[in-house]
Predict the structure.
Amino acid sequence: MLIYIKVFVIAFLIFLAVDLIWLGVIANKLYQNEMGHLMKKNLNFVAAFLFYAIFIVGLSVFVIIPSIESGSLIKVVLLGALFGFVSYATYDLTNYATLEGFPLKMVVIDLIWGTSLGTLTSLLTFLIYRGVFKWHFYIFIWYYFYILFCGSWLHK
């Protein structure tokens, strides 16, 4: 049972850090320009947290833990990519099919992002859990939260 808790916490922190960098810094203007007409003014943090938690539970149970147990780096990469793709395809293709004005360009970009995020989160969690670069992870998390709360990009 301890493996599930450890994997969930590691994966959640990685996913949160990487996705917030993507959404808050790298692709912020892209999402505003392409989908601003569809976006809420205020983010629903409860719904966002629930998505993150549910996604990470699925990623942990179906991808990361089986890969740790088998010791397979290839398995964690391929299944992480597949899980990210399928999860994001569910969202993006449903929106493209049902929402007026949901851009095809964003479907493609978001599918690539979901695939990348699933792969990266799975791989880094796998490596950290197996002790490949423990201290690097803690330094990364500390630096990320330092930038998040003290970084100049927040004040622009």
In short: Residues 36 and 81 are 28 Å apart (CA to CA). Confidence is low (pLDDT under 50) at residues 152-156.
